[in-house]
Design brief:
Helix content is 38%, strand content 20%. The protein has 212 residues and is α/β, with parallel strands linked by helices. The structure holds zinc ion.
Amino acid sequence: MANKNIKRIMILAPHTDDGELGCGGSIARFVEEGNEVYYVAFSTAEQSLPKGFPPNTLELEVKAATKVLGIPPENLVIFKHEVRKLNYIRQEILEELIMLRKHIRPSLIFLPSPNDLHQDHHTVSEEGVRAFKNSSILGYELLWNNISFHTQSFVILSQHHVNTKLSALKKYKSQHHRKYLTKEFITGWAKTRGTQINADFAEAFEVIRWII
Ligand SMILES: [Zn+2]
């Protein structure tokens, strides 16, 4: 008999690395607790790569990073839409999400906060809510893109979950120039969210839908 406590969880990442940044520690914890985690990326952002990196760099990096988090390769879905143009193909993205909903039937979805300013993040957030409105949905923060963010729910993390998140993010060699990809920032961010709820570390989420 299927264990009712095991959840099927889906992470929607507009670009490879958004899921690791927004909920990498939580993914590490969910996998450790035996849940089935799926990761869906919508763009490998070939046009945004720094000079000198081959076009498939971010595809290889997301494969390596999700492996570190413990997501099985067969649970990783990569779409190769053009970066910054996801809003041009909203309907296509919605149809992909509906197809995934039918095939995977996740009960808990993580997607970018509806308050995320990045055009691709905003599109995946809106179409994700549209496709999964009958499931529980939590919005993750990417605080360099959020003018406001409501810390309505938390996943408590241990140091080793944060370490796993850091190891996963290390796989993104092409993104090492980003200000937010430092050990100090990622650790401090998890410490900040933990401190809000008297825990050592946490990740915070907006409650978009919650079904019990
Ligand atoms: Zn992104």
